[in-house]
Amino acid sequence: MHNLGTSADQRFEAPELYFTDLNADVLSSAISAAADLALVLDSQGVVRDISIGGAHTQELAELRQWVGRRWAETVTVESRSKIAAMLAAAGGGSASAAAAAAGQGSGPGQGAARQVNHPLHGGLELPVSYTVVPIGQQGRVLALGRDLREVAAVQQRLVDAQQSMERDYLRLRHTEARYRLLFEAVDEAVLVLDASSLVVFEHNAAAARLLGDSGKRIIGRNFMDLLASESQAESAVGFAQARSAGRSDELKVRLAGGQAELRLAATLFKQDSSSSLLLRLSPTSAAGAERAASRSAEAPTLGHVVNAMPDAFVLTDMQGRIISANDAFGEMVQLPAGESVQGQSLDRWLGRSSVDLNVLIGNLRQHGVLRLFPTTLRSGYGEPGAVEISAVAVADGPQPCLGFSIRDVARRLPTEHRASRQLPRSADQLTGLVGRLPLKDIVGETTDLIERLCIEAALELTRDNRASAAEMLGLSRQSLYVKLRRYGIQDMGAPNGD
Question: How close are the terminal C-alpha atoms of the chain, in Å?
Answer without folding.
Answer: 37
